[in-house]
Amino acid sequence: MSEEKFEKARTPFFFYASVLPAVLVFTVLLLFPLAYEIYAAFVTREGTFTIENILTVIKDPLYTWSLIRMIIYIVIDISIKFGLGLITAAAFKQEFFGRGVVTALALAPWAVPLIPALFAWYMLYNPDFGVINYALKSLGLVKAPVMFLNDPNTALYWIIWAHAWRYTPMWTTMLLSGLYAIPEEYYESAKIDGATPFRTFIKITIPMLKRFLLMNAVLSLIWTSGEFASVWVMTRGGPGNSTQIVGTYAYWYLLFIGNSNVAAAALVVALPIIIVLMLIFMRLVGGRR
Amino acid sequence: MKMVEVRLENITHIYVTGRKTQTLAVKDINLTFPHASFCALLGPSGCGKTTLMRIIAGLNIQTSGHVYFDQQEVTPLTPRERNVAMVFQFPVLYEMNVYENIAFPLRSVKVPESEVKRKVKEVAELVGVTHILNVHPSTLDMGSKQKVVLARALVREPNVFLFDEPLTNLDPLGRLEMRSKIKELQRNIKTTMIYVTHDQAEALTLADKIAVMDFGVVVQYDEPTKLYEHPKNEFVGFFLGNPGMNFIQGTLEDNAINFGEFKYDVSDVVEKLKEYGTEFKIGIRAEYIKVSKKPFKGAFKAKCIVSEHLGTSTLLDLKAGDKEFKAKLRITDVKEGDEVYVQFPKEKVHIFNKAGELII
Amino acid sequence: MAQDKERKLLKPETAARIILYAYIIFYMFLMLFPIYWMFTGAFKEDIDIFNPAVIIPTKITFKYFLPPTFDPIYWRWIGNSFIVSTLSTLVVTLVAVPAGYALSRARGIFFSSTSKILVFTYTFPSTFLLVGFAKILAALGLLNSYAGLIMVYVPLNVPYVTYLVLSYMFAIPTDLDEAMLIDGYSRLDILLKIVIPLSFPIIITGILWTFMWTWNELLYALVIVNQKELLTMPVGLNTLQGGEISPWGQVFALSFLYTIPPMLIFYALRKYYVTGLMKGAIKAA
Predict the structure, then answer these.
(1) Cβ contact (<8 Å) for B84 and A192?
(2) What are the CA-CA distances from residue A258 to residues A45, C134, C223, C238 (Å)?
(3) Taking the model in full, what pTM does it have?
């Protein structure tokens, strides 16, 4: 009993006061919008309960495709960030001339604001005056210009690339810190045991970072599922709605069609997927604390 | 098991730490570690012992000099090619079960699966981990972890076994346990073992020969008893033993070295000593000093400043004039403040010059 | 780390070296070319902008930075972004740092639950609150205002920054706190005098995070603000672009200006950021 009292004496008013603003922020300022949104999804404009909004959304092929594209988006996105990031982190861990400068400069895509970066890629992709097509033509690799963003079949993937490009540096830094977190003795022991750098990487380094990698991957999946800017800026959802994802769909319904209830429904229907991912994440986090 | 003689010839190593800074780690080291011997590299932090070990292992290539295993120069060989095994300060275990950990070095060099199974089982039995082969190392206690590390090292039948301060991170009990395990290993397996440590007690107990190092050079390389009884200089004398050898400075006058309140007769060697000047230090170990509460022939008076009971013995801080030294006795009732009578037995005294080098 | 001559003298090793350098050059080109191209675009003549062959411009112009092509409203846009980002960052930091401290020290059901809710909250993707926020702000009449935007930006960032601070402070030993408590200092003293200075890297990281997040934010700004004078840069840039004929030179020039503040801040604080990110990232594992 006395230990409890001792504990109590050590959690004074100051702590409650310190934490209160933050608590208010996420209960009030986050819970309300969420609650209201869920409410709006199940209600008509006048306020009567209905599942029409949900049905409209589910029956709309444009929506189901948006959902599918969202999943495609987050999966390809993390694959690029991960793959490229890991290779680059491994490369940056080596000693080479100019390493300090290179690692600093490599963060540039991330430091440049999002919109301009997307514009840059938009222009690079342009069939007529984009540098990529120019280079491809000059090298004789293609005859007709590649319709990156103008081709409904490929547009989404080029958007994803631009997005992944921007976030790879952050991943490189993070993965690099993970690589450094492993004590040097492990790398040395592997060397003495005769493992090639590649084998060391696969069998020792990655397994040791498993939890760390998984957590960040899941977080990326969750955060990217709400992607909006990259699609909107580069194609506005086109060509022909071939790049619409959940974020742009909801936005479009909210501002262009003016039906906030259906927009809310669009977001709410996708929520279960998000919640599942979040629960997986909580599981991974819970492993330590 | 293989056993090679490791020979270091003129090994010098300089670390480059940044644009312009260089550190001399070891200078012109010449050492031979005999077949199947257990040798220790002993010294304080920064003396270069770890560098030397890493050079033997092949993790660092020496700036100049040669490393030979038997008659073969191993400098161009990778650690794996040299077939060395290394035990680190903490158990380095990979994220796989015990069996996989032990099998790892074999698989890395494409040993056929059937061989792998046989060898792993063999070593597991030797070390005593057969019952935990399917277990993940994270669930094991420290002792078992160390065993797995040893197993993984043994499975390759290494030429040389390297230990990098393996007991440093253990608590006293764990330390004693591991020490006896290593001794057991040493007895059962005839492989050349090289052991790096800063703990002189470890080195004295485990090693056949010890290379005492300081500031990148080997100060003395000898058997433990020789190092203990006949240290080449003050550094070795003080570094070894618990407590280290006492060193008392005095001046040569007539036929004795004068320490102020007492003298030490050197009439039999005074001619030799005169060649080295007039300032000398005598070295004598705490446990050899004769101490009594009653006066006896040849003894001088000293006062007890501190008296520490260490279980089976007592450590006394004694002071005569402005000279202080320690004596170690069996159980005694000498207390702080007591006056005692002290004598340094001639056969246990060594005379050093002012710089601390052994003369007699 | 001591850089030492390691085992890199054998043939397969030198081949690996060449591959390493080749990859690094390739990667850096990939990362930097688009940025380079965009920045040079701000200074190119129109013809050159649309000519992909002009990689290094020979003719330079500043016309997109000056009137008449440069509409003075662009300055308002930059200003709006600045105000919103700075205020949001300030509020978020003031809320998150003490909260992070409290959560790293206090025990009890309330605090541990709060920590768990915190994790849940920060993972939640902001886009999915769009309709909720939009409707509430509309009801409160806070559309087209700084306050409205900040009222959205702050809650969307507090959880994550609090979490960063919490993780970092968790690793700061409580011995310090206790020693000071015994000496009679208040918790506030401890926070201000010791813990915050020690937590500089992560606080800077949090500041940079929030600033960059708000500086880049498009969706909410698009929905909440539509009055031309009150647009933030992302929205403004977005309105400039559209359809076949966009004033690309202008867009690039504006982008250039818009990139400078974060670049400067980022560069000045990069030491802290990398440390903080590394430590925070490890904590997350």
Answers:
(1) yes
(2) 11, 12, 12, 20
(3) 0.82
